[in-house]
Amino acid sequence: MNQENLFAALRAAFPDDLDTTAIETDQGLNYSWRDLDRATAMMANLLGSMHLPEGARIAVQVEKSVEALMLYLATLRSGLVFLPLNTAYLSAEIEYFIGNAQPAVVVCSPKNFGWVSKIAFKAGTQQVFTLGDDRTGSLLDRAAHCSDQHFVVPRRADDLAAILYTSGTTGRSKGAMLSHGNLLSNARTLKDYWGWVPGDVLLHVLPIFHVHGLFVAVHGAMLNGSKMIWMSRFEPKQVIEKLPSATVFMGVPTLYVRLLAERELDSQVTRLMRLFIAGSAPLLIDTFNEWIARTGHTILERYGMSETAMLTSNPYTPDARYGNQGERRGGTVGFPLPGVSLRVQDDAGQTLAPGEVGGIQVKGPNVFSGYWQMPEKTQEEFTADGYFKTGDVGTIDTDGYVTIVGRSKDLIISGGYNVYPAEIEGYINALPGVAESAVVGVPDADFGEVGVAVVIAKPGFKLEPLTILANLKATLANFKVPKRCDVVVELPRNAMGKVQKNVLRNQYQSPSTGALHAANATTLQKK
Length: 527
Ligand code: MCA
Ligand code: AMP
Known about the structure:
By secondary structure, the protein is an alpha/beta fold. Among the domains are: 27-156, Rossmann fold (3-Layer(aba) Sandwich); 412-523, GMP Synthetase, Chain A, domain 3, CATH 3.30.300.30. Helix content is 30%, strand content 25%. The chain has a 9-stranded mixed beta sheet. Strands 4-3-5-6 form a 4-stranded parallel beta sheet, with helices on both faces. A 4-stranded antiparallel beta sheet has the order 16-17-19-20, with no helix packed on it. A hairpin with a 4-residue loop joins strand 1 and strand 2 (30-32). Helix 4 packs parallel to helix 5 (113-122), helix 7 (180-193) crosses helix 8 and helix 10 (253-260) packs across helix 11 (285-295). The protein is globular and about 65 Å long. Adenosine monophosphate binds next to strand 13, strand 19 and strand 20.
């Protein structure tokens, strides 16, 4: 079998001198390339000793740490399938993912072992390990007894490397299946397109359970043999302190907004930076312009999805050698990446001319093969000629720049995290006394967009917004809880009786107007 394991490609990019620093942490720890090689070998040997079947899933919900990254790399190395889970998920959410993915191994934070292991063993998981963010836990204890020599398990390009849960266009979360080839082709394309050079240092501040922090950032640095400065969480002041030692930074728009709020951010602090990259949510043109004014750097905005990794990017340079035709243009997500075919179609399946607005569809070596155990859903999301329907609405201008103008999927993107109104509405509707609810996204200066819940009580019931929010908070990951809840007497509907979410969105554009329009409403805003 040809060796197309993604880990093999990352390992091949390690520098010759394995004793140089690969990762420097905010805790003052230094990990060499040799440490990465040895520790991933030991963890891979531990996983190998379990004799798991090909395609077995390793589900991981742990705090960000270098050891958590090593676990990802070790899973690749052993040819198994990595399934990262947001640390904010609570038991009902974890129960769904574990029940659906049927992982052979689950790795959780030591503090969650009690409830996570109960869920996992009930679902048939063979082994539950723990991994703390302070180099503790049974995973490391057990791996410490394993050999530090390991041959990378051969994988073909279309073998599964990771499953990322996402709700796609509708309904409950679905596992997007990404292969070694999907991830490696995208990583190689981005390495060239973004002009990674020897000596680059990545300041890594994002969580490592999503495409942005785990794939785009980590693969980018590792494929270039570049050092990472590793922050366990995003702290604007710490970022500013570390910027003079870095050359590349990647963040969701909220991170840029929060950095701009720091007085110390200026062109002096960013003088050695080569590239600032933004994505996962729309970057406001004001943020784009303010960043130029404050730092002299033009943020490069790109666009992607869990199902596809990166699809488009603004140019790194206007240099034709990179296939680029122009400057980084604020408000756009740039050009389709080399190898990605992107078109805009109307509902009738006609490809639209430049400037016309329609559904964005994509094809390329980075596009996933389908949703885990959902062949019908997968089929629905692809066109007959093999394009994936992104659910994003956009346009391509005559210069070739892609602009996203909206989404046909009912989705809120808050601080770079996806929130599915249908999921939140489901939980609200199940609460006693609730007749119906609608959750909509409204603009927010910090998170870009936040959720607002508008709820109707059953006759004879009095609902308290505070109680509704408290109930949601006890059940759902905190970022999904709407920032505001109103109890109203009726929802706006069209002639077919369907709730008009666009009308609600307009009503709740700003907190004060929302209350004004929601007659007889009781309101609560979360701070
Ligand atoms: C935290 N809170 C949020 C969010 N994050 N509310 C809405 N949206 C959020 N994103 C709430 C918490 O519930 C809590 O409320 C309060 O804010 C403070 O929580 P804390 O954990 O302290 O927040 P934070 O540390 O300040 O986190 C904000 C953050 C974080 C740094 C912006 O959300 C973040 O790291 N976002 C990046 C997400 C990301 O990597 N996305 C990439 C997806 P309370 O106290 O009331 O509970 S990959 C992707 O989208 C595609 C493929 C792509 O193109 O990249
Ligand atoms: P996810 O399901 O987390 O992979 O989120 C993917 C979605 O994030 C895309 O379908 C877009 O709606 C959105 N997205 C990612 N990058 C951008 C961007 N630069 N501008 C606007 N939306 C984006």
